[in-house]
Amino acid sequence: MFRKISAASLFLFLVGCGSTLTPTQTAYVDNLTPCEKIQGLVGGFENQFEPLKATRVQTKFGDVWTPKYHLLGNSCQILGMNNERVSYKCAKQYDNESQSRDAFDLAVNQVAQCLGSQWQANNTAQNQSQRTTFKNAKHDAVISIQSGQTNAKYNKTWQTSFEVGGLIKK
Fold this sequence. Notes:
Elements: H1 2-15, H2 23-30, H3 34-45, E1 53-58, E2 63-67, E3 77-81, E4 85-94, H4 97-115, E5 120-126, E6 129-135, E7 142-149, E8 158-167
Antiparallel strand pairs: 1-2, 2-3, 3-4, 4-8, 5-6, 6-7, 7-8
Helix pairs in contact: 1-3, 3-4
């Protein structure tokens, strides 16, 4: 357990060292286990993912940052809404439902294994989409994994998304 906590803390420290990672830092993060990465994100929620934030774009709805490091593919963003809600979100597109569901099942199983029994999973399904949300009474962060068909107009695609977020307590 100590290794996971210290690795997650070191990961957040390393990505906070600059706007891009050095080759040594990249190698370190690449060698973290999936559980260490998930724990790092859960721990990073407490300070609004500050060490992970890079380029900021302001909109009328809130702020969007590109992260200094994409933990899942190259499609992650940090979203902040009016200093009350923050999330780290990644999504990946698939050509068919089977690929998206397989990625969803793999992610749900990995998160459940990493977080342990203190985190309760809630599953919901509607139409052709499904979502699993993990919550823990001792943490403000919520992890949500979703799979479903996109709203693409000409080409039916599927998407699986991973999000760590929630309301910020003040």
